[in-house]
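cron nightly-structures :: item 1 of 1
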Amino acid sequence: MDTGSPIEARLASSGFVYSFVAFFVVAAIILAVLYFLYLKYKAFIKSKQWIEANKNRETKFSDVRKIAHEANLDRIEKKLLWSICKTHHARNIQFSYRSENEMQNLFKSEFQRMNLQNPRNEEKISVLFSLRYKLEKLYDRKHSITSTKYLRPGQQIRVLDEKHIPHDATVQKNTPEGFYVEISAELKNFKPKPLSKFMINFSSATGMLYQCVVIAARYEDIPNGKELLLITHSSTLKLIQKRMTKRQGTTIECLFSAVKEVKSGRKTKFEVQQKKYTGTFIDISAGGCKISCGLPISKNQYIQLYFKLPGIIEHQAQGLIIKSKKSVNEKTFVLYIKFTDINIAARNDIYAAIYDYF
């Protein structure tokens, strides 16, 4: 019964305040306990015990979901990855994507299974290569190169002269003191002076391009009459470019024809000329290529390419010459070509050849 007493009113008000404070104290304690348990869980899943227990089990959908988020996979790529892991009983994808051999075997098996279908599902195969490349880029992001100490023998690098013209070179060996490159015919056009600074760039397996400034330490003669340059290490690598397509060096011959642009009003038609010439691929990707030929063809011209990579039928593609230069021996010319018209089957076969899936 409410008597209207001021004392009772104060008591009622105090009781409400105490209840309110008690509620928030209890809530804070619960949240603190939950946060503590969350931290313990995070520590546990990073522990050696958890890793050992989970890295060798088969992939679960939750593993695919996590990798899909990290690698920015779209819905179709995510669905295909789950299908591949189930079909081939893949080891936990959160760990196995870091193994080049496992990914090579997994995706090669899936490609060969797809390749046996008649007709092939070119769209699905295209997704397969998109998925493979994104997993490679994820690995690269988490294992980015931080020093030239990680360059391996056989790694191709480009030495840039004062005019930023690139000169190709190959790493011969890597030591704590620096790494050695052989003075090739091309590099003889630009021999850095001892103790001088110059710039180099090189690409990772997925085409991530790094650039840094290094110092020419000294030149050393080797028994076969050749000369090596010792270059000091650099830990100030700068990531300057990410290729959109995987590329591979090759020396396969090809044929090409000139393409004539015929304008009719607002439309432009491309007429492929009948006469064919011989060229040799220097490298190739699904987006373009570089070829060597005996003709001094200038840039901004279209050409039709005819080629046959190992294990595949003959394909053709139309491309635009975006750069043209003389080779080192000045007897041939190097054409840098961007594909402007290439069908999906040819793109897929180029990827398959680059990844050695045939």
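cron nightly-structures :: done
Residues 251 and 298 are 22 Å apart (CA to CA).
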